[in-house]
Design goal:
alpha/beta; Rossmann fold; about 40% helix; about 15% strand
């Protein structure tokens, strides 16, 4: 007898991470994009179609507005929008899995990390589960931070990056992330106490850029600039550009990572330096 697939509502299915995970998970569960009360794809801050929640077995929350960096927008959209969603899911007894970030930890500097941390607490307090991936990558189409790096590699023969030998990043393959999220949805894994899912050994941003350049067959000269000087330079450029601002907060989150991650004990099978 065929096993009945779970019906899992999902937010953020139009983004790079969400689109990949929705396609990956669809083989094992019914991934259903969450709709708002007008029947359109739900966005943070929208009113929900409560009928969807009544028929759902779980909710995977992957949505996050990365285009805002001010608290007067982050609070009503990302934080309050997520909190309302999580609480309404609890009202309908729908368990929530929230995709957070390694940028979220006590003492983090970025607004992105601090906002994710606030939402994490709401999720856990309402009986949900969280997972913190590292810098995500896939073997197919590149998006997110790596997508931006790939564009730089295509455009520029010389690339300056904010990096030091001591500042390193933990990588997370999206296929492996999808597998562990599936285990969480199926109730086979609980990692709230140690929520980081990423490669154990971190690598420098310079190494990441060089690896992408080799993959693209674009020989690039990559040199490191101390992060403080790099961010100061971007801040000055922002002042000159006025409203056309370069997003700095995400960079702050990358450069000021947690020193001792609480790994969940399960690590990605695919490794960036070997399998990219």
């Amino acid at each position: 007898m065929a096993k009945t697939k779970k019906n899992v509502l999902m937010t953020g299915t139009s983004g790079y991470l969400g689109k990949f995970l929705a396609s990956h998970l669809q083989h094992e569960i019914n991934v259903i994009p969450l709709l708002n009360d007008r029947g359109l794809p739900w966005r943070l801050g929208d009113a929900l179609d409560s009928d969807q929640l009544r028929d759902a077995d779980a909710l995977l929350h992957a949505a996050w507005d990365m285009n805002i960096e001010n608290w007067d927008e982050i609070i009503p959209i990302n934080i309050r929008g997520s909190r309302v969603l999580v609480k309404q899911a609890k009202t309908h007894a729908v368990p929530v899995v929230f995709i957070s970030s390694m940028s979220a930890f006590t003492g983090c500097r970025s607004k992105y990390g601090r906002a994710k941390l606030i939402v994490e607490k709401t999720v856990v307090n309402n009986g949900g589960k969280i997972i913190r991936p590292g810098l995500v990558w896939s073997q197919g189409e590149l998006g997110g931070i790596l997508g931006k790096i790939a564009k730089l590699v295509n455009w520029l023969p010389i690339i300056a990056i904010p990096s030091t030998d001591t500042q390193k990043l933990h990588m997370t393959n999206l296929s492996n992330l999808g597998d562990i999220i599936l285990d969480m949805i199926q109730g086979n894994l609980d990692i709230n106490c140690h929520p980081v899912f990423a490669e154990l050994e971190p690598i420098t941003l310079k190494t990441i850029v060089k690896t992408v350049a080799r993959k693209k067959n674009k020989p690039s000269l990559v040199f490191a600039v101390h992060p403080k000087f790099f961010i100061c330079a971007l801040t000055m450029v922002n002042r000159l550009l006025g409203s056309k601002k370069i997003k700095i907060d995400s960079l702050v989150g990358l450069l000021h990572a947690v020193e001792k991650p609480e790994f969940c004990g399960t690590f990605p099978e695919l490794r960036f330096l070997q399998d990219f």
